[in-house]
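Sanity check

After download, print the first record. It should look like this:
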Amino acid sequence: MLTWHLILLACALVLVTAGIAYADDDPKVDAGKCHVVEFCVSVGVDEDTTGSGGQADVPQGGADGNPSKVKCSYTKVDQRPPADHPVWKGKDPTKNDLYFKSCSDGGQDNPAGFVVVPTGQPPAPQVDPQELAQRAVDSMTLLGPAIASPRAAGKYTVGVPMWMWIHQSATTYGPNTATASAGGVTVTAIAKVSKIVWSMGDGTSVTCRGPGTPYTPSEGMAQSPTCGHVYSKTSAGAQNGKFPVTATSTWLIDWQGGGQVGQLTEVRQTNVQASVGEVQVVR
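Expected structure tokens:
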């Protein structure tokens, strides 16, 4: 209820600032002052007041067509402000209708404002392209790295180069593309892993900018040209006798739609254990 009083006060302040005395020369308007005029009052004071133009609840639809937690009400403003008033956003009042939009997520977030739409058309929900971009990303099922090496069943040796690499797919490395639409706005998002940080379990980490290079026996004792590590101690003292290895991928998502472009990031992890021993010399 406090929020609505604040909205009415803000509305009145806008008119005072603009120096506008409206509502058919209401005698309540004194010289040099402007009280809360009919334009503000008739919009609606709380959720149960329909106002002069009636009120409709419009749930904000998700990318899958299901309503989200945010619900918005649109109240048509019949007591129209002057044509040069800022709420018209420069549009012609003779060709457009004015609505007061109020939204609530059931908590403390209750944004409100005015919406101008062509005469006779229903007030379309205002869609945030970045929110749609996030919905597109959520539909991608982005996962952590599909680790190919080190293998949980593998045996690795102190001083011998370890090659790390992953299996690539749309959900584990990218590129992954998805779209989301609502309120006449469509956003397309493209996601791809920009880096993978390997925490090796021995107190060191390795940052790799690609998926890594698969090892082949012909490489012998060479180090990986793209993503590798050399252990300097065994995993005997680690829990279960193995180093806990964590591969953390950072997904970079480029999106565009609704006249906007932007970037989002997502982080995913995968864990594996590596058994590291020493070369046993037989004398």
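If your output differs, re-run the checksum step. Summary of this record's structure: The chain has three helices and 14 strands.
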